[in-house]
Amino acid sequence: VVALPSYYGEGVPKVLLEAAACGRAVVTTDHPGCRDAIEPGVTGLLVPVRDADSLAQAIASLLLDPDRRQAMGAAGRRLAVREFGIAGVTDQHLRIYAALERGVAGP
After folding, report:
1. How far apart are CA 27 and CA 59, in angstroms?
2. Nearest Cα residue to 39 out of 66, 87, 85, 77
3. Which of 9, 16, 67, 80 could disulfide-link 21, Cβ–Cβ 3.0 to 4.6 Å?
């Protein structure tokens, strides 16, 4: 389990993407950027910002349920490969460049 109880704006934290790529279930805060890096209930758990009790309960729930923890880790790995792997990122960039080219060249 990887926990990141962030409470300030930092974009999508790289540690959450790395955790997913390593097949680890994630517990993080329901905060912009953090919430964008997981599929709540599928690849990890979201807890309210600055709520230590909820954070502890979420971590404990995954530590006590190895099947759920492993399923979330596997789902996180699939998400990381699909959304943040080299092929997915390259395709996203190519679509952006194509759209820009169409806009520059006109209709």
Report:
1. 7
2. 77
3. 80
Cα–Cα–Cα angle for 82, 87, 4, nearest 5°? 45
pLDDT average, residue stretch 11-19 = 94
The backbone torsions φ and ψ at residue 32, rounded to the nearest 5 degrees and listed phi first, read: -50, 140
Supply the DSSP string of 10-29, one letter for each residue. -SS-HHHHHHHHTT--EEEE
- Of 58, 65, 83, the residue nearest 3 (C-alpha): 58
SS3 label, residue 59: helix
- Distances from the Cα of 40 to the Cα of 30, 66, 86, 94, angstroms: 9, 17, 24, 29
Q: Are 83 and 21 in contact (CB under 8 A)?
A: no
| Domain tally, the chain | 1
Q: Please tell me the predicted confidence (pLDDT) of residue 62.
A: 99
Q: What's the CATH code of the domain at 49?
A: 3.40.50.2000
Q: Provide the whole-model pTM.
A: 0.82
